[in-house]
Design a protein that fits this description.
By secondary structure, the protein is mainly alpha-helical. The protein has helices at 11-43, 46-82, 86-113, 115-121, 129-141, 143-158, 163-185, 197-220, 228-231, 238-270, 274-310, 317-341, 343-348, 354-367, 371-386, 391-416, 418-442. It is 81% helix and 0% strand.
Length: 453
């Protein structure tokens, strides 16, 4: 593969070529979680759905650092790929995968041991604890596989390959679609796992997808194929790790703070009962379909920015930012409109329980529109991250979460109930957009942009 930019290609065209498969990939990634919720809600009931929902912030917290690692590596890989240095790409990939394997094994072991204590800290309703604990333990055991999968797909996007991750997610989704309901119900002679079925299905899909991915990359002679050229770099290279962490740790910090905020919000929601917990889980699933496209556009902006910097085409950074924001308005805005028009049928795919449905409807009506602000802020911070400017945008996002989202949720939930929790999200997203835009215009655009070495 070649770097995505050449001087004669319009920015919008490069963006759309890169974004199409990436957008479909993130929709499929969200779909896998949706299918699990649908299976649980209809095959077992709202209590099983609530049990899985209780694990969501914990999982988000545990994978935050690996997502930060993937973000840091994709920037370095994108710059190296733009400069046409495949060996440098393999050096970054080897260090990143090694850290992912070590981190995944550690998280899986410690998380599985302390799952009951973690769920108790979240004030998980007692009536769903017997189902939530085994679900959490099996999901945590899958972390090494999940970490490697996330890192590989992130690094593939760094070299401009969004098609292979799409194929991998198609494989993963198809495996989950077949295996998950089979394990829940105990079909074809298998033991009936009930609520643990989706977790077992996740492990099966990760194993089969990674096996397919390894074969596919080797067959294509891909730069990131797990061959002798890459395997000799499968160790921790100190200087490269420091560069990855310089970008990845602040990004991970932001995700950790976001996940801790979700933990705090879920703790408040749990106080309103298991129907509210289930509605929170449904709302997160639906919001994912709006937020993942917005995040896809931000990822595309970051990687295209990194490749432009590596290729020495700094004049394209402004165009990348503007194009990303405009595409966010069109794509995300269209999805939001569909979400408002078909909110009740969408929620009906998860549950037919009237009280849960009503709560989830209120959540969506209050929050959906603000995803536009979330997406625009993510594009701006993504372009700045491509140049290695990470700490300031991260601190601004953390400020929006700690100084706006959590206080608003606490104060308004006491005054007006659950609607106050939902209102905290739009407040935080608008604050993020304002903070990022001001820093981008007043500070970052005046900096000298150079490739990270």
């Amino acid at each position: 593969m070649r770097p995505l930019f050449n001087p004669d290609t319009p920015t919008w065209k490069v963006f759309l070529i890169f974004l199409g498969p990436l957008l479909l990939s993130n929709i499929l990634q969200s779909l896998s979680g949706t299918l699990n919720s649908v299976f649980l809600g209809h095959m077992i009931g709202v209590s099983a759905l609530a049990a899985a929902s209780a694990f969501f912030p914990m999982m988000l917290f545990l994978i935050s650092f690996i997502m930060g690692l993937g973000s840091g590596s994709s920037v370095l890989i994108g710059q190296a790929w733009g400069a046409r240095e495949p060996e440098r790409v393999r050096e970054v990939a080897g260090t990143t995968l090694t850290c992912g394997l070590i981190g995944g094994a550690t998280v899986g072991l410690l998380g599985a041991l302390f799952a009951p204590q973690l769920l108790a800290m979240l004030r998980t309703p007692p009536d769903i604890l017997p189902m939530a604990i085994p679900y959490a333990r099996v999901m945590l055991a899958s972390m090494p596989l999940l970490f490697v999968f996330l890192l590989l797909t992130s690094m593939l996007r760094g070299v401009g390959d969004t098609v292979t991750p799409l194929y991998a997610l198609i494989v993963s989704t198809l495996v989950g679609l077949i295996v998950t309901p089979t394990l829940i119900a105990g079909w074809i002679g298998l033991p009936r796992l009930g609520v643990i079925g989706p977790a077992g299905g996740a492990i099966a899909s990760f194993v089969l997808t990674l096996a397919w991915l390894s074969w596919h990359l080797h067959r294509k002679g891909h730069t990131l194929a797990l061959d002798a050229k890459l395997l000799r770099h499968l160790h921790i290279n100190g200087p490269i790790l420091r560069q990855v962490l310089r970008i990845g740790v602040p990004t991970a910090m932001q995700m950790v703070i976001m996940s801790l905020a979700e933990v705090a919000l879920l703790s408040i929601v749990n106080g309103f009962g298991s129907d509210a917990t289930a509605a929170y889980g449904i709302g997160n699933q639906v919001l994912g379909y709006a937020q993942f496209p917005a995040m896809s556009i931000a990822i595309a902006a970051s990687i295209l920015g990194a490749q432009a910097i590596g290729a020495g085409q700094l004049d394209r950074l402004g165009s990348i930012t503007r194009t990303g924001i405009l595409i966010n308005i069109v794509v995300t805005g269209s999805l939001l409109l569909l979400g408002y028009l078909f909110a009740r049928p969408i929620i009906g795919m998860f549950t037919t329980h009237h009280e849960t449905t009503d709560i989830a409807m209120r959540l969506l009506y209050i929050v959906l529109w603000s995803t536009l602000a979330f997406g625009a802020a993510a594009v701006i911070s993504g372009v700045m991250r491509a140049s290695g400017t990470v700490m300031a945008p991260v601190l601004l996002s953390i400020g929006a979460i700690l100084l706006v989202e959590v206080p608003v949720a606490v104060l308004l939930s006491r005054r007006i109930g659950l609607d106050g929790v939902w209102m905290s999200w739009p407040c935080a997203f608008i604050a993020m957009l304002v903070f990022q835009s001001l820093y981008y215009r007043l500070v970052w655009r005046k900096k000298k942009i150079e490739r990270i070495r």
